Amino acid sequence: MSTASLVTDLYELTMAASYLTRGMTATATFSCFVRRFPPGRGYLVAAGLEDVVEYLEGFHLDDDDLAAIGRLGFDSAALEAFAGLRFTGDVVAVPEGTLVGTGEPLVEVTAPIAEAQLVETGILNRLTYQSAIATKAARCRVAAAEQIELIEFGLRRAHGTEAGMAGARGAAIAGFAATSNVEAALRFGLRASGTMAHSYVEAFPSELDAFIAFGSQFPERSTFLVDTYDTLTGVDHAIEVIRQLDLGKRAAIRIDSGDLPTLAVAARRRLDDNGLPAVRIFASGNLDEGGLARLVALGAPVDAAGVGTRLAVSADAPYLESAYKLVAYDGRPVAKQSAGKASLPGAKQVFRSPGLVDVLALRSEPVPAGSTALLEPVIAGGRRIGPRPSPAAAVSLARRRFEADLAELPAAAAALVDPHPLAPSLSPALAALTDEVRSGR
What we know:
Blueprint: H1 3-6, H2 10-21, E1 27-34, E2 44-45, H3 49-58, H4 63-71, H5 76-82, E3 90-93, E4 99-100, E5 107-112, H6 113-118, H7 120-144, E6 149-152, H8 161-173, E7 178-179, H9 182-188, E8 191-192, H10 198-202, H11 207-217, E9 223-225, H12 231-244, E10 252-255, H13 260-273, E11 280-283, H14 289-297, E12 304-307, H15 309-312, E13 322-329, E14 332-333, E15 348-353, E16 357-362, E17 372-373, E18 376-380, E19 383-384, H16 391-408, H17 411-414, E20 425-426, H18 428-439
Parallel strand pairs: 6-7, 6-12, 7-8, 9-10, 10-11, 11-12, 16-20
Antiparallel strand pairs: 1-5, 1-13, 2-4, 3-5, 3-18, 13-14, 15-16, 15-17, 18-19
C-alpha cells in the first residue's frame, strides 16, 4: 500500500471521485498560502518544499490502496477511475529559506483537478509545520543578535520523531549552528552537539568525580553541566577539573536553570579570575526568542544556547492559517468570496524588489524591471525539474537564501514585539481580475 498517498482527509477522496466519475478532468490551479500571520510574526520562512516534491513524485494509488478505498464505501465506478492514478501536474514554488509575506503563494499546483485536489492535505501538512518551526527559529536568530550561537535541542519534546527531524531541519535553515539530533545531523550535514544530563552527575559519588570522568573520556568536547546541585559550586568544580586536565581552550560549562543572566555573570567572573577566559558558557532551559533577547539586553556573557521545547512546538504560535484554494479551472479564474476567507483568482507570481518589497501579480504578467520573480518551476509533468539535491545540499542552499533575505528584512517586520508583517501590494491586473470575478462579470 502506498500509505503516503492515503494519509489524507476523506473529503479529498470524495471530491476526487466525484470529479473523475463526472468526467471533470480539465486542468485546475490551486494556490497554497498563509492568509494571516499569528500575533508576533512579521514574516514567514518558507520550508518543507523538498518534502512536498518527494511526496508529489511518489504519489500514486496502487491495488492495495484501491482495496482500502473500496472498504470505505466507494463504488466500483470510483475505484475504476482511481486505478493507476498518480500526480502528473506542474508545480511552481517559493524556494525554501525565502522570507514571504501574508497571502503570498508558497506553492501553486496545476494539474487535472482530481490530482490537484487529492494532494491538498499532503502539501499543507508538509509546508505548514516546517514553515512554522523555521519561522520560530528565525525569530530566535534575530533575538540572539549574532552574539549567541544557537543549538537545536527539540527532539525529545517534538510531537513525534518525524516532527523532530523536520524541526531540526527548519532550525538549520534559519541558521542554527548545530543540533542535538544525531540522525538529523547525519542526514542534513549538521554539527551534532551535546553535553551531559543531570543523571550523569548524580550517578557518580560526587559532582567532581563525574566531571573528572567526563573530561578524561571526552577531552575534545567537555561541556560540564554545573547546576545539578549548587550552580556556582558546580562552576568551581568545573574549574578544578578543567585546570587539572588542561582543557582550558576546549571546555565549556552549561547552566540549565535559575537566573541565567545573573549566574552567567558570576560564572564568567570565576572563570576569568582562574585564568580560563576561553572557556565558553552555554545556557539552556525553556529558552526561545524572549529569553534570548533578555540575555542579550542584559549583556549576559553567554556564548551559546540550547533552544528546545518552545522551538519544537512553536509554543507561542503553534499553527499557521494556511490555505490551499482553487484559483482557476478549465481556463476560468475562480475565487472564494466568504467573509474573512476570500481568496484571489488566477495563477500567480510574486515580484520582489530590494528591501523585500513585494507585488502579488498574475503569473502571465512580465517581470517588472528591477524585480525578481519568487515562484520558480519545481515539477513538470509530475517529475522534479533538475537533479535531486542531497538532504545536506538542500538545507545549505535554503540557509543561504534565508541569510540573504534576513539581511534585507525591514526592522518593523523583524521586531519581536508588535511587528508589522510583510504584505504585498496587488498588481493592477490582479486587482482588476479580482473585481471582475467577485462582481460576476
